């Protein structure tokens, strides 16, 4: 109990009543303390301030008993102007979190909120210490006296202030009307690593990692246009890591009247520095709005579309109304077959959020969800309220939320003691649930509509991205990047090559890049999920079990290691990876063309669950992704087959001809084509004789490639049968005409070559409708050693002749297809004269250098890519080496 001296120093009015009680350091004492304060104030006739007093007492006694671990003394004092309640504990060394300190707990945590609530609800409050006692007090003004300016309480001595690890840094970034950063202070440089000159003029969106759950929240660009906005997101630092921050954005005008946005950012665990504490609405009269009805205060307080805020306030008021130790609210799915946990207080909400239980049948069902129910002892009815399993709660009361007779949810309050609730309290809770049900359903439908609109946009964008590639690896990467972090914290893709093959881990992605390697290692140690032949989402417990086992084994090893050990660092990484994959994991089969081609695995971190709407969206995405992945697979197979067949049409490596340099350059037009209508060949005929050919089939693509294969193989066979050049081409002409409608006319330069003992080479050539060969002599002169003759594949009766050519040492014979000579740039064409001019400058070069220089000149002649196949065959007789 507080010391009399303390009361005398802080009291300015005459005390007219007092009541005191002490409570043991056990969990049920919190509810007993709430009942003591409620009964005391009810007896004094101050029902209009009971709700605020009970809420604050609950938080302060919880701090003393649950968190400080000591007994709690509660003293209620009444004067003519106010009621003062003092809560003391026996742990004065415990640091008190203050506004502005980095140790202040976030508002959404389950502890450490007592002083924040005092600041929000009380007219005055403070903290006092003695050598053996710590006391937190708050004062609630009675309604007949206007509420004045609230005080945050007396200043603490410097020695009693909490110690921060480092000073709290507030990053300041100012954004101009175009969204570009114009101000970046030193704290921003320290927090995120970017110097000011590196971010000036760049959009904040380039550095922000915004939550992208479809239909939920506002885009970062839109948030900067609001008059004021507060919330959490991430900023990527210079190393690519995401730093969670809490931000306050304020829209202002500069001295020129131009709009800009001032952004204040702190680390997310220091959010209390910027976060606006919740306030109870003020009535028009200027006094605080108090009511005996605990639900009247918050109905309509949250924004119409703030479902989470509405649900959280509902469970907190429900708990206080029935003096419970915990409260929870679940919403029904559209088909009313399952209930989904959406808000809790007094329970580990992060662990339970979005968990689902069946309504009617099956193991773990949610008891009588459609009717009010009072559970005197949960240990005697295991599983009656699955949410309370292993929480220590013994009794509970649950009531349904209904709109027009349809089940929309369930509200419950629980206590650690058995037999705490009666039918009368169930009726009170049902009355409150009936009042809030319509507001909850309206907010839920609004959230669902926004989610569905966002889902449609998400699926449209996903379809466009998946349709934009036929590369299998890129499709896998897109699948993962679209699901993380929008739908899940991490994902993995298993692919199945055929029905006889086991699933293969093809791609892994985590929202934290540092966790990807550890996640791959973890998944590699467990068997993949078994493929199924039916669509639908199913749970997969193996990753969570493997993560828990890894964490257990690692913790055992850690006991014998120092913090500076390299192995200890690896242990920390293992524990972080285990926590990152320890939540709910689901498997979505990938079906395409009536067969399973893989599985998409989505996962959450430890103790987190998926929303039903997210799973439905993931199913839609998996169907689109499966078809895109199968299309990419089929395309890859077709390309591989096509390229294999095309390579079979190309000649093997050119033979080494004694005393002759040979160089070939070949470029097929069209993406994915290795062979087109142009072709070449150099091959031995018999001892000392070699054949060479370069030709051009009309057109490009597979049809031209088919005639190419016919021509190349026919030339080799006929030449080796001993036929001369004209006979070879005449028989080839007949073979092309025999193809009928599939035939294509063909231009062909065919020759036979005999190296001579004196270092020269004797040639016989036939030029059937093909660009004439050019001969380059050592003195730079260029001529054509052949005459044009009719092309092949047009006339049946051809009379061709061959011409003899001698190449002296230093001579070069250049043979090309019309893709070279007909290279165009607008109205200009390279032509035979242009090619001869290029060849003139190749005096003294090797055959390889000549071919390369010609191809370079052709490529530079026009900026656009070539639309026709191109082939170059260069033969050079090397000059004898000088002694």
Automatic annotation (TrEMBL):
User: What InterPro entries does UniProt report for this protein, alphabetically?
Assistant: Bact_Sigma-Reg (IPR052016), GAF (IPR003018), GAF-like_dom_sf (IPR029016), HATPase_C_sf (IPR036890), HATPase_dom (IPR003594), PAS (IPR000014), PAS-like_dom_sf (IPR035965), PAS_4 (IPR013656)
What are the protein's GO molecular function terms? phosphatase activity
Family matches, as Pfam families: GAF_2, HATPase_c_2, PAS_4, SpoIIE
This protein's source sits in the domain of life called Bacteria
Which residue ranges does the record assign to the PAS domain?
Answer: 166-202
Please indicate if the UniProt record lists Cell inner membrane as a keyword: no
Which keywords label this protein?
Hydrolase
Does the keyword Phosphoprotein belong to this entry? no
List the PANTHER family. Answer: STAGE II SPORULATION PROTEIN E (PTHR43156:SF2), STAGE II SPORULATION PROTEIN E-RELATED (PTHR43156)
- NCBIfam families, per database record: sensory_box
UniProt name for this protein: SpoIIE family protein phosphatase
């Amino acid at each position: 109990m507080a010391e009399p001296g303390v009361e005398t120093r802080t009291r300015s009015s005459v005390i007219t009543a007092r009541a005191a009680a002490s409570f043991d350091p056990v969990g049920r004492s919190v509810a007993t303390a709430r009942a003591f304060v409620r009964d005391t104030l009810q007896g004094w006739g101050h029902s209009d301030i009971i709700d605020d007093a009970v809420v604050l007492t609950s938080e302060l006694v919880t701090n003393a008993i649950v968190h400080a671990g000591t007994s709690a003394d509660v003293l209620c004092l009444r004067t003519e102007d106010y009621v003062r309640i003092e809560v003391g504990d026996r742990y004065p060394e415990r640091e008190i979190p203050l506004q502005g300190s980095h140790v202040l707990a976030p508002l959404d945590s389950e502890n450490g909120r007592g002083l924040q609530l005092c600041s929000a609800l009380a007219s005055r409050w403070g903290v006092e210490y003695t050598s053996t006692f710590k006391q937190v007090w708050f004062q609630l003004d009675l309604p007949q006296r206007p509420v004045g300016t609230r005080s945050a309480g007396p200043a603490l001595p410097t020695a009693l202030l909490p110690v921060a690890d480092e000073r709290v840094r507030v990053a300041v970034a100012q954004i101009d009307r175009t969204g570009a950063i114009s101000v970046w202070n030193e704290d921003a440089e320290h927090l995120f690593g970017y110097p000011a000159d590196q971010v000036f003029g760049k959009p904040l969106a380039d550095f922000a990692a915004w939550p992208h759950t479809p239909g939920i929240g506002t885009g970062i660009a839109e948030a900067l246009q609001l008059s004021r906005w507060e919330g959490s997101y991430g900023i990527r630092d210079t190393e690519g890591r995401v730093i969670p921050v809490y931000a306050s954005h304020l829209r202002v005008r500069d001295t020129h009247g131009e709009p800009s946005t001032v952004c204040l950012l702190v680390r997310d665990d220091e959010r209390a520095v910027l976060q606006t504490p919740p306030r109870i609405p003020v009535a028009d009269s200027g006094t605080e709005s108090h009511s005996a009805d605990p639900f009247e205060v918050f109905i309509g307080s949250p924004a119409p579309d703030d479902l989470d805020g509405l649900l959280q306030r509902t469970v907190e008021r429900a708990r206080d109304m029935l003096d419970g130790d915990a409260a929870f609210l679940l919403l029904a799915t559209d088909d009313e077959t399952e209930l989904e946990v959406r808000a809790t207080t007094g329970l580990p909400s992060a662990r339970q959020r979005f968990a689902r239980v069946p309504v009617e049948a099956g193991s773990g069902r949610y008891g009588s969800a459609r009717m009010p129910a009072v559970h005197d002892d949960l240990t005697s009815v295991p599983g009656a309220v699955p949410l309370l399993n292993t929480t220590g709660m013994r009794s509970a009361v649950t009531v349904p939320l209904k709109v027009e007779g349809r089940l929309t949810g369930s509200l419950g309050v629980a206590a650690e003691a058995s037999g705490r609730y009666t039918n009368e309290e169930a009726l009170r809770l049902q009355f409150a649930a009936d009042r809030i049900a319509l507001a909850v359903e309206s907010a839920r439908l609004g959230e669902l509509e926004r989610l569905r609109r966002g889902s449609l946009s998400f699926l449209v964008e996903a379809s466009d991205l998946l349709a934009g590639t036929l590369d299998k690896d890129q499709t896998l990467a897109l699948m993962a990047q679209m699901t993380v972090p929008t739908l899940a914290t991490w994902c993995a893709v298993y692919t199945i090559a055929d029905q006889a093959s086991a699933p293969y881990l093809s791609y892994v992605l985590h929202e934290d890049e540092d966790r990807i390697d550890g996640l791959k290692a973890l998944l590699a140690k467990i068997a993949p999920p078994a493929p199924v032949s039916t669509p639908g989402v199913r749970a997969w417990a193996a990753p969570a079990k493997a993560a828990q086992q890894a964490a257990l084994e690692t913790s055992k090893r850690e006991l014998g290691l120092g913090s500076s050990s390299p192995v200890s660092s690896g242990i920390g990484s293992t524990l972080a990876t285990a926590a990152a994959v320890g939540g709910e994991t689901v498997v979505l089969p990938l079906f395409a063309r009536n067969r399973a081609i893989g599985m998409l695995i989505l996962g959450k971190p430890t103790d987190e669950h998926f929303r039903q709407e997210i799973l439905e969206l993931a199913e839609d995405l998996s169907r689109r992704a499966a078809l895109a992945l199968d299309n990419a697979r089929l395309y890859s197979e077709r390309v591989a087959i096509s390229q294999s067949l095309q390579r079979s049409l190309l000649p093997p490596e050119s033979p080494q001809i004694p005393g002759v340099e040979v160089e070939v350059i070949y470029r097929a037009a069209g993406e994915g084509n290795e062979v087109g209508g142009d072709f070449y060949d150099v091959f031995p005929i018999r001892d000392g004789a070699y054949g060479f050919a370069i030709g051009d089939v009309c057109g490009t693509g597979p049809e031209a490639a088919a005639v190419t294969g016919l021509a190349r193989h026919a030339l080799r066979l006929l030449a080796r049968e001993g036929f001369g050049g004209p006979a070879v081409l005449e028989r080839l002409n007949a073979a092309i005409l025999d193809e009928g409608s599939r035939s294509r006319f063909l231009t062909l330069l065919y020759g036979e070559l005999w190296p001579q003992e004196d270092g020269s080479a004797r040639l016989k050539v036939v030029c059937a409708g093909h660009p004439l060969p050019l001969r380059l002599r050592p003195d730079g002169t260029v001529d054509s050693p052949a005459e044009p003759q009719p092309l092949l594949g047009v006339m049946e009766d051809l009379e061709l002749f061959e011409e003899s050519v001698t190449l002296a040492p230093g001579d070069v014979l250049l043979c090309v297809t019309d893709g070279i000579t007909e290279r165009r740039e607008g109205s200009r064409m390279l032509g035979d004269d242009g090619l001869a001019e290029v060849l003139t400058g190749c005096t003294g070069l090797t055959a390889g250098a000549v071919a390369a220089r010609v191809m370079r000149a052709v490529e530079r002649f026009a900026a656009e890519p070539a639309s026709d196949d191109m082939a170059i065959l260069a033969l050079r007789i090397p000059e004898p080496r000088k002694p």
